[in-house]
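User: My instructor asked us to take a sequence, write out its structure as tokens, and then describe one feature of it. I'm not sure where to start. Here is the sequence I was given:
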Amino acid sequence: MRVFILLLTLLAFSSAENYTFLVQPYSKEMELEAKIIAEIATSSVREKIELFIPHMSEMEEKIYSRYFKLSSKCETANFVFVNKAVENEILCDNTNRLFFTNNYRKLLSDEKYYGALFWNKSRPNIVFIKKRLEKRAIELPKTFDQFIENF
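Assistant: Let's start with the prediction itself. The structure tokens for your sequence are:
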């Protein structure tokens, strides 16, 4: 009987890593977000991407570093993803970098953002504003045409 209980315990521990999503509830969503942002950034920027995320958490750093070279300063990045509220919205000048957000309202109200990735009903939504793409001379692949809105 003890051997049977020991075998069941070992079996349970061997499959425990399948349930790590219960410990880190947002890592899967953040992983998907990072993949989508990587696709958007590589389609938008024609050079090697240096990503800056204001107030980046350790988990974000761990996940996003798989897809990007991370920058600790906005001034050295060429792609800025603002996924949290930033005080006074003063990051850096937007002359040589692209700004992307996860807030649809921020996208509509601030001209420096050319697109947004936000979650609605547990699904990712992507929006680009056509005039801002044209202003920045960004040519996205045809696969992104369905996400471009004309305001």
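For the description part of your assignment, you could build on this observation: The CA atoms of residues 55 and 84 lie 8 Å apart. Try explaining in your own words what that tells you about the chain.
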